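ugh ok so i messed up the first submission bc i forgot one of the chains. this is the corrected input, ALL of the components this time, i swear. 1079 residues overall. if the numbers dont match what u have on ur side tell me asap before i send this to the collaborators (the ones from the other lab, u know who)
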Amino acid sequence: MKSVFKLAAAALATTAITSTAALADGHALSGDLVIFSDMSNPAPRAVMEGMVERFGALHPDLNIELTVIDREAYKTQIRNFLTADAPDVANWYAANRMRPFVDAGLFMDISDLWAEDDFANLESTRGAMTLDGAQFGVPYTYYQWGVYYREDIFNELGLTEPTTWDQEVANCQVIVDSGRACYAIGSKFLWTAGGWFDYINMRTNGYDFHASLLAGNESWTSDEVRETFANWRQLIDMGGFLENHQSYSWQEALPFVVEGEATAYLIGNFAVQPLREAGLTDAQLDFYQFPAISADVPLAEDAPTDTFHIPSGAQNVEAAKEFLRFVVSAENQTMINAGDALGQLPIHAGASVDADEFLEQGFEMLSSNSPGGVAQFFDRDAPAEMASIAMEGLQEFMVFPDNLEDILARLEDARGSVY
Amino acid sequence: MFPRPIEKSSPAWRSGYQALLPLALIMWLLPLLAVAMFSIKPDADFTTGNYWTWPSYFAGFENYGTVFGTWTRTVDGCVGNLWPLVFNDDAFCLFGFGWDYDGSDMVRYMFNSIMITIPTVIGVVILSSMTGFALGVYKFKSNLWIFFMFVAGNFVPFQILMVPVRDLTLDLGLYNTKMGLVLFHIAFQTGFATLFMRNFIRALPFELIEAARVEGVAEWRIYWFVVLPLLKPALAAMAVLIFTFIWNDFFWAVVLTQGAESQPVTAGITSFNAQFRAAYHLMSAGSIVAALPPVAMFFLMQKHFIAGLTLGAVK
Amino acid sequence: MTDLSTQSHSPTKRGWYKRHEIALTPWLFLLPGFLFFAVYVIFPIAQSFNVSLYAWDGLDRPIYAAVEGAEITDAECTALGPRARGNPGCAETGEFASTAEYIGLENYQELLGDRNFEISLWNNLKWLVLYLLAIPMGLFIALFLNQTVFGIRLYKSLFFFPFVISQVVVGLVFSWFYLPDAGLLDSFLQWLGFDGLNVLGNPDYATYGIIAAGLWPQTAYCMILYLTGLNAVDPEQVEAARLDGAKGWKMLWYVIIPQLKPATFIAFVVTIIGALRSFDLISIMTNGGPFGSTRVLSFYMFEKALSEYGFRMGYGAAIAVVLFLIMLVFIAYFLWSMYRDERGY
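and heres the new structure output, hopefully the right one now
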């Protein structure tokens, strides 16, 4: 199965190469191409530099200037450089996170690129890149969220991966009885609680309701939302979550998984690397898809997508567009998402996934077992101000579930003023 | 003297006091001593949950070694650098000699702190000795009001300056540069330093200046040859104080800079913490390294430091 | 013109500058410092008032103009926003316009109903009141250390030590001290047989936990002010009071403390300023949490204006203005007492 897939990928990759080469012959790119990137951690940085090098080799007359900016710093700096000193290509995120820049006219409409043939292979993320009917960027990587758990502890307790909510709750009871927490979570910086809400709400009420809630079209005091919180509360009341999680960052909660004081962690694939570094082997660590809650609700997943955009102030638009074509090509996406590079998932349908236990499971899950849809993440789908107020409420709920009425009233109030 | 000198009390009181002193000190510095101990404990002590036991072995060299990273001589990294002192992603270069470094960014943050703090101190000393001279020596109508403006500005909750100063720094193209921070710090500290200098100059014998004027000495020469030499102790006290304030600044570092190329150590230590997750031994070692320069400054210049802090407290 | 008239009054042929030297020199000396201060401190205060009347997310919008002969107008091009680039009738002007929108006092109106603003205000009050404890605590330690035994100078400087360390490090140290289970405080409580206490994770205690951390360096500061003040206490008065039979509390209250008034004044001023500026400790220890319960105005305004989910510049500026007005009460008091002092010169 996999070899067939790889063959197909290789074939596609070849066509991608030839097509780029043909283009390059057609009208050679020249001048400067300025790229600002937020891929500042060591592995992403190497990936970014590698991409620039390979793209440069294809276009020898093009002078590429790459500036890598600290990932956190980038979030503020982009607001400055898009107006003051716009590059030709810049990193950012999909969905609502790009809305302020699109609304201010700072990202270029690149719907023409999306009309090209190769972009049909990116269909899965077209929605996340679309605002007001036009596309404003291209994806280069994404990663799955899901439950990372201690396989060895599950075996010891005689548990199996749950697929329904009842199994999930029953499992958790066994784990709690063994003196452990079911889930590690560090909610000091709030967003991890957003992940929990995403999943329970998408499983309880479905993707469409969830998307519409975060877009401000549903009430936070509705019965649907209350049901989500009631389901969540089951786990809270039985002591399923790590105690004092409001005091930890997501990284500070990792040691509890490593030491076996918590058996699982609902988190993104980026947690795998630190868990491995802390000494967990692939035999100890495994992954399962968040179980179904309501049987008639199709499964939907969180898979945040990272992207490239062309600022409106770009000087060398032609080269920038060519770079985006290069970035999304199957060959490039296979290469940059490999386990020894980003260690994430490629978006191009023709790209292949690296032979890594977690990447393969994630790819399988997202490509064939997520019929409900793919969400970006709580704080990317909701507007920033709503996200920050809401996530604070979610954290409070996890600590004081009895405050729910107050919290929901507050969120409903915020919905009235934010949107 | 109050309270009654201990040597006039009974011997029991005296030895009781002598015994109480170190105990009280240990209690007072307990949180700090704990961190110092953390910084020499090996990683294994934390994974086994022995946070508060004696280190199972001395791991100070490993921990501090990780904070400072490894340094090797390089030649290539510095070719083409025109400045005598450069510290970038590739290497640390001093007059053409270069070192490659590997490991945490702590050393770069420390370097940034130095490159921010020292120019600020020099700038403040120059500006405030001038403003202090003007306000302390000359009598003119708006003297007191200008002085009050400096004082009031110094007490403003500086958060109110945040949005406009950030915009201004952006417009000047100095956002995320050490220079942007230095210029702001100089301006803001000038308020405090003017208060300090003006009061000190007021207390100088005015006859000296009068005498110089009678001899026809130009005013700027009075500043340079008469007043400035007398200001030396005050300038030293102020310099030490400003050094500490600027080194310890966190708020403006967060507002005006980002990333290892310009952030000082106070802001950098938070990203250092993110890098080392829950590695308490390394975070402790990093914190201690970050705290060291002002502490050293304080112990070396203690007399000046305290004189500076308490100027005006006692009249 | 003026030169001519003044020259006629002047008996000697000195230059204009020379004749006005004494009047001009202070201005020349003030100029650089004043300029810096005006540009970076005075003017921004006024600007903050102005920004607080706008809704602004800190972004600028590119302006497009219609190409000559095109059917489209300039305004239509700009209205197209990001799609203007694809329209052959539009061209960039290279200029940007602010997206700020004047909304009058709306930001302030919103503050009135903002629950988080209310929490911040209350916390600021807690900070103001509890931070003042540093003054009696500092006095207590100063009295304890005001002896002349062997090594006392070293003790004094070690007691002062916490003030020299940056608040960032103090915040880290105290957050480890408060760590649930693993922290020293929790270990101690459990050793005594009490339940563990997650100080910073509990909305009822977290602010007090942070204030306690802030009191540590602030007490050291007040201590050093009082130690210097005690040095200047008039020994004759103390002796005279002793002869009158005053001792202990009475002596402290009626003889010593009145003489320490200048030190108390400075301690009061620096403590109030420190309390209102508190930002570092909150940002390091709890980041405003749990669920926003440890915010103060200075932190909340940073969050609203510059944090990842913020960028409401106008709203942040409005919070800053409120903070400034609170501080103004104290600044006015301080300037007034300085003014009295100066008049006494």
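quick check: The interface with chain C takes residues 75-76, 79, 82-83, 100-109, 112, 134, 136, 188-190, 243-244, 246-247, 312-313, 317, 379, 384-385, 387-388, 392-393, 395-396, 399, 410, 417 of chain A (CB under 8 Å). that seems consistent at least. The mean pLDDT of chain A is 88.
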